[in-house]
Amino acid sequence: MKDHHDLPLSFWVTHWIRFICMIVLVVSGFYIAQPFIMSDADLSAPVNFLQAKIRFWHVLLGMILLGATLFKTYLFFFSKGSEIERKSFNNVLSAKQWASRIIFYLTLGGKVKDYGLYNPLQFVVYLGVYIALYGIIITGFVLFMNCYHDGMMGVIYPFFKPLETLMGGIANVRWIHHLLTWVFLLFLPVHIYMASMKYLFKTSYEKAHS
């Protein structure tokens, strides 16, 4: 079983790029929705444009997030270094794997056997996170194309406009975008806790995996 520390560099680069992007996007997104700071008022000339600056960084980090997510998706399906991730799908189909993992998480007891990188619970949760990730990117594009109609947004407008209609209009798109933000805010502490279990409960973890 390959340890997380033995994974290829591309795994960790895309992981931390997306993490940094999401943190900045969450903070800037909450600001865009409800501005909570203001620059010094200068009524002589409209040159502060703090909202515009925050929106610029939000869009820029959103584009970087899209690139990193597409690259990681490609690696998952086609990279030799991600073969151990693909093998994890077999765990989802194993009732024994599900039972042993649920027992371990509830009681810190029993015996578990690792096949691939992710256990079935991890695989299903990460799949859901990726669906939410692409969902928040798509809704972000729909929101942005209604503010900027040239360049890339002008190209994708005819393709994404039906999605806006399908979701019930721009107000619903904005609501879905915010709802998906909370998916990541709820996932993050759980992810950190679960990733730290081998250190928090070292004795039980090693006994279960022996």
Automatic annotation (TrEMBL):
Its main location: membrane. It comes from the Bacteria. The keyword Flavoprotein does not apply. The chain crosses the membrane at residues 12-34, 54-77, 123-145, 175-194. It is found in: Cell membrane. The keyword Transmembrane applies. It is a multi-pass membrane protein. Residues 13-198 form the Cytochrome b561 bacterial/Ni-hydrogenase domain. Keywords: Cell membrane, Electron transport, Heme, Iron, Membrane, Metal-binding, Transmembrane, Transmembrane helix, Transport. GO terms for biological process: respiratory electron transport chain. GO terms for cellular component: plasma membrane. GO terms for molecular function: electron transfer activity; heme binding; iron ion binding. Belongs to the HupC/HyaC/HydC family. PANTHER family: NI/FE-HYDROGENASE 1 B-TYPE CYTOCHROME SUBUNIT (PTHR30485), NI_FE-HYDROGENASE 1 B-TYPE CYTOCHROME SUBUNIT-RELATED (PTHR30485:SF0). This is Ni/Fe-hydrogenase, b-type cytochrome subunit. It comes from Helicobacter cholecystus. The lineage of its organism: Bacteria, Pseudomonadati, Campylobacterota, Epsilonproteobacteria, Campylobacterales.
